[in-house]
Design brief:
With 460 residues, the chain is mainly α. It has 14 helices and 7 strands.
């Protein structure tokens, strides 16, 4: 906001800001409601009596108008949007210059048409997320065992696939086929994963589905097929085809789902102070003390790559809400303040008021397995990870309190559902665990899709 003299508006008053000439007094808007105070000698008694009755009537009406105004102010002050704004200010957010498009008659979360819908029934998206947080790994869960490392065939086969955990108060998730997964994912404005190797393994399940194959690499196919993709993680990482736009031949979908994984471990915190800001943005290295908390450049690597991804999509897909899944933390030694300052706050600041609004999810960490090296237990033990997940969850409740179907960022709670699952190195899990994550995500998006359509978010 600006003053009439063109200077930025602040709450501070200085005499030099005063106008050079006195301003005329403003008219009192309530003058006409002032009661008649006495007889005037230049008016007849009838005129005085009539005027007295008129003013008496106005005086009786005034409490009604005052009450109406007070109720209006009370209702506005108690709206969810006002509470959300207050909560965001408390969490350390700046006012976003982007404003939602309130001229459209439907939801700011938008989806496109599907051929197959309503595959998961029985719980809504909020209930599903709550159920996942309370899920327990069954004793006979397949994720407790290592998978076969060298499949003879690379064809994806989900006919006998079952979840290793049950969802309390919700029915068993639907097992999506490649055709069903393609249809669902293509109803959104792209699906963008960003994070560490654990996030990459999570995304791999969707790439297996859209390719209808256990082979999602560009070379060394047998060494990186199926379970071997997780066994040989570092080798397979650099030859992964984790971008359906760049590698369309890897997808069997009729319509490109625009599925992409972007690897980002962390912003380096040990860079020299002399390193230029331009170089820092180019390399993805940000000095921890160079920027104040929550004030990373929004056009930099935090939001820039997602924006570029969105702008690369066809126009009709840009009109739909993208699905965004993040996972960071282990490379920050599970310092939640760094993750919040460097990733969550900048993302919410950049995209929480855009139209269409993203569907954003934060993927939590699983407890370490028995093979976790002893020297890492102090910094990556179960209590450390559980505490980290809790801090992220608590922050999101304050900074992004809306439900998922209204644009709030929610955490996928994997801790209990994977507690006891087999891990090759105490950190990374098998095909079974990652396919369970992918299948759960599809069930969540399926439930969410129906809610968005019901609230007017379907783009014809």
């Amino acid at each position: 906001m600006h003053r009439s003299n063109g200077q930025p508006y602040t709450d501070d008053w200085d005499e030099k800001d005063a106008p050079s000439t006195p301003l005329s007094p403003l008219p009192n808007p309530f003058d006409e409601y002032e009661p008649f105070l006495g007889h005037r000698t230049d008016e007849s008694s009838d005129e005085v009596e009539n005027a007295s009755r008129r003013n008496e009537s106005r005086t009786k009406r005034w409490p009604f108008f005052a009450l109406l105004i007070s109720l209006t102010i009370l209702v506005v002050a108690s709206t969810p949007a006002t509470r959300i704004t207050a909560l965001r200010k408390a969490a350390g957010f700046r006012q976003n210059s982007l404003q939602p498009n309130t001229t459209r008659p439907f939801s700011n979360i938008r989806v496109g048409k599907r051929r197959i819908s309503g595959l998961f029934k029985g719980c809504n998206s909020s209930e599903l997320l709550d159920s996942l947080s309370r899920a327990k790994l069954r004793q006979d869960g397949k994720s407790r065992l290592p998978g076969k490392s060298s499949p003879k065939k690379t064809q994806l086969d989900l006919r006998e696939f079952k979840f290793s955990f049950d969802l309390p108060d919700c029915p068993a998730p639907h097992i999506f086929t490649p055709e069903e997964a393609c249809d669902l994912l293509s109803a959104f404005g792209g699906v963008f994963f960003r994070g560490d190797s654990i996030a990459r393994f999570f995304s791999s399940s969707l790439f297996f589905l859209i390719s209808d194959s256990l082979d999602i690499v560009t070379s060394h196919h047998q060494e990186c097929a199926g379970e071997s993709y997780y066994l040989n993680g570092k080798k397979c990482r650099i030859i992964s085809a984790l971008d359906s736009q760049k590698y369309p031949e890897k997808s069997v979908c009729d319509v490109n789902p625009f599925l992409r994984f972007e690897q980002a471990y962390k912003f380096r915190t040990n860079q020299r102070r002399s390193q230029s800001s331009a170089r820092a943005q180019k390399t993805g290295s940000v000095h921890r003390h160079k920027y104040k908390a929550g004030e990373l450049p929004l056009e930099g690597v935090v939001a820039g790559n997602l924006t570029a991804f969105r702008e690369s999509l066809p126009e009709e897909r840009q009109a739909l809400s993208p699905v965004v899944i993040f996972q960071h933390g282990i490379h920050y030694q599970f310092r939640s303040e760094d993750t919040i300052d460097f990733h969550i706050k900048p993302f919410l600041q950049a995209f929480s008021s855009t139209v269409p609004r993203p569907i954003s999810l934060w993927s939590s960490y699983s407890p370490p397995g028995p093979l976790k090296p002893k020297e890492h237990i102090k910094d990556q033990g179960p209590d450390v990870i559980s505490n980290y997940n809790s801090k992220i969850r608590d922050f999101l409740k304050i900074a992004s309190p809306e439900p998922l179907n209204e644009g709030g960022m929610k955490q996928l709670e994997w801790f209990e559902a994977t507690n006891g699952a087999f891990s090759y190195d105490g950190t990374h899990h098998s095909y079974q665990v990652n396919m369970e994550k992918g299948q759960f995500l599809l069930n969540l998006l399926d439930a969410l899709y129906g809610e968005i359509v019901e609230q007017g978010g379907l783009v014809e």
